[in-house]
Amino acid sequence: MSSKLRIDLIASLILKKAIAQREHVSACAEFCVALNLKTKVSAGVSDNFQEFRRILLNKCQNEFNSLIKTRKHQEAMERESDEDEQKPLGEHKKANKKRTLGLVRFIGEIYLKKLLVFRVIKYCIARLSQSIDQHPIKSDFIEPLCELLKTIGNTIEKKENEGGYVDSLFERLEDLSNELAENETLECRHGSIIIRDVIALRQSGWEESNNEDNDHR
């Protein structure tokens, strides 16, 4: 097996582990850092440092886009399904949500480890926000967005708020929370509470966020 194929396989296994078991996301991110360093200093494979990062980034982006596309497809099926079909669709929805939460947490963690640039984070935030800001509001994407913000909020607040990017993002979240709170469905009200939680976390100075030893996010 070539060096590139080995790196591709390792990146796939790490991503699979992180998505499936969120409690191991921080460890997976740390392993990526260690692998980067080892690959960078290995004799004769200096280019593989950048290669690993590129492969990992591509896999994260492909998985992210796939999960969003899958959820939108599920929504279309739910609208057209009868009562007997709702249960299996609900199980698929639950599994997709779990994978999405694991993925965004991993993306946030490897960003904190400086393996991803902020441009990638902005892309993920934009895709999730665009998916939410439809009529009716798509509340399924609220929890992944808030999970990502809980993971990286303190860092982007300090480093990436030039031009008021973070301020504008949270102004929209405030408006969105108010809109959802007025909706009668339990799902929308739950979405409002999730947003309120991340807003409160920001107001508290991100005390529980971006602590690399804290796995309770």
UniProtKB/TrEMBL annotation:
Belongs to the eukaryotic initiation factor 4G family. Residues 8-176 form the MIF4G domain. GO terms for cellular component: eukaryotic translation initiation factor 4F complex. It comes from Lotharella oceanica. This is MIF4G domain-containing protein. Keywords: Initiation factor, Protein biosynthesis. Gene3D superfamilies: 1.25.40.180. Residues 71-92 are annotated as: Disordered.
